Amino acid sequence: MTVLRNPTHPVGDVFLRETQAAGRALGVTLQYFEARDPSQLDSALSRIEKDRAGALIVTPDPLFGSQRKRIVDFAERRRLPSMFFYKEFVDDGGLMSYGPSFPDSYRRAAAYVDKIIKGAKPADLPVEQPIKFEFIINLKAAKQIGLTIPPNVRIKSLSKGSTLLTAKDMKKQIAVLTLSAMLLALCFSAEAQQPMKVPRIGYLNWFLLSELGPHPAVPPGPP
Q1: CATH class as words, domain 2-100+132-212
Q2: Are strands 31-34 and 2-5 parallel, antiparallel or unpaired?
């Protein structure tokens, strides 16, 4: 199984440790490929193709988010089961995603704004972690690469507030699909949820906003 990562990500070491731990627990061998900027992405994808990977996990990073169409198209062309970190990848044709709901985090952040406007001191407000996570499966993409999504996986997807984009049974490599989902789910351990004690809502905002420009160094902190 292949993992695409950016070693310069501020919490890249957390993602590395968590995927390694998940791989050991599941008895899965992981191969890591790195890309630090868009110019290195084609090289990384080419090496993944030569490695004949059985599945692909893309770790959270603004670089990969901004280049998601390239990554999704690559996985589709190579018929590669793939797991991503937010739903926009699935919207662009990716197979699966698991991660926090950004719209839900933004709605909850509005409550903080309301309290501050009414006189509350930001330093006195508690830090919150995401409470809504989305496991999304694209059944059309599964069909295109010859995968069957078991009914129990569909039920789990729906129970997490996720979206199924089509509704037909398909064939092949269920083990790879399940392992991909489990590995990425384990990436979001308690440590990954609150890396370096950075307030998660501030971190999520930095994560999305940084897609609009060059990859930054370390986020300056919560807004």
Answers
A1: alpha beta
A2: parallel
Question: Distance between CA 167 and CA 163 in Å, rounded?
Answer: 11
Phi, psi of 185 (to 5 degrees): -60, -40
User: How do residues 32-58 score in pLDDT, each as one tens digit?
Assistant: 999 999 999 999 999 999 988 889 999
124 class by beta-carbon count within 10 Å (0-12 exposed, 13-18 middle, 19+ buried) = exposed
- pTM, to two decimals: 0.65
CA dist 27 and 29 (Å) reads: 7
Percent of the chain clearing pLDDT 90 (strictly above)? 29
Angle at 177 between CA 181 and CA 27, to 5 degrees: 75
DSSP annotation of 127: P
Residue partners of 92: CB distance under 8 A and separation at least 6? 68, 69, 72
Distance CA 21, CA 222 (A): 29
Percent of the chain whose predicted confidence (pLDDT) is above 70: 68
Q: What does the domain layout of the chain look like in residue ranges?
A: 2-100+132-212
- pLDDT tens by residue, 154-212: 655 554 444 443 333 333 334 444 455 554 444 444 444 444 443 333 333 333 333 33
Residue 24 contacts residue 186 (beta carbons within 8 Å): no
- Distance of alpha carbon 72 from alpha carbon 173, whole angstroms: 19
What 3-state class would DSSP assign to 2? Answer: strand
